[in-house]
Amino acid sequence: MRLSKTVLWSGALVGLAFSLAPALGQGLPVAPAPSWLDPTLLAAARAEGGLVVYSSTNEREGLPLWKMFEDTTGIKVHYVRASDSALMSRIVIEFRADQKSYDTIHTSTVNKVPPQLLETYEPPEAKHLFPEARDPNGKWYGVYANYNTPSYNTRQVKASELPKTYEEFLQHKEWAGQVAIDGTDNEWLKAILLHYGEERGTQLIKDLVATLKPVVTDGHLALARSVGSGEYWIALNNYVNLTLNVKLSGAPSDFWALDPVTLIFGQVGISAKAPHPNAARLAANFILSKEAQKFQTQFGRLPTRPDVSDNPPGTVEALKKKKVTMVLITPEEERKWQRLFESLFRPR
Question: Domains of the chain (ranges plus CATH)?
Fold first, then answer.
């Protein structure tokens, strides 16, 4: 059984193959099948001959996660990894060209995918999710909770110096040029304007840009790693799970929560033109399962199931002490909020 992976870098495709050993030895006792494994669906999925996953999850997490699926089902997985923006562009182009190229998409931007590109489906495991993590139209489901907060390098910045509000950032002119933000954080921007009001929030962002001169970066994981390495002292905003991922690896990095804490989700959806539709449905059910979510917590992912504990314990409780604002930008809103982000953080 082989799990193949394709990584997209700047639009280029690089094919890599990974050999995996069979999960079960000859003659050994067989463990009970996991609850997410529907025998009827499994038979239909195996007959299709494979599964293509598009994902923005880094290979260190994504490959062993889908190895679990391969080992349990015997279905070969082709794993295509790229940034959210690269995957979004690719699936739109492929849909227009009537290409049946992928089965399952796993990113934090599935809610921004035009609905006609996604199949309507409710995986059985979805009933175990928090209500907020379920799209009422059945187009996507939350795999992990993606809270947004600032983060910092604990060697470069003392915890006692951390601002208690976004306004207090304006008292730290000495941080100018040492602060960064990902160039696609339009959900965070929307939450800021909802929290402060459009006029006050817009002026606050302008003042932050003028005072801190933040570097606009490409990729949330790259930003988390850059803060952990000390390249940047502070991320004005990033995904908590990625900050935890870097912290759990031993880097001197941590987050702190300010109002508002923006909440989005790492989501799973199924292509409306899936070449392996039964495998896609089985895969969606797998990634929402207790086993899959528990596995992902070792990398700092925060679960969307109440029967899975967060890691480190108490993380979600600490975040919920602040005002949590869930933001879902529709495909129609995406351009508006991204244009506003660009105008504020990359003024001409």
Answer: 2-145+264-303 (3.40.190.10), 147-263+315-345 (3.40.190.10)
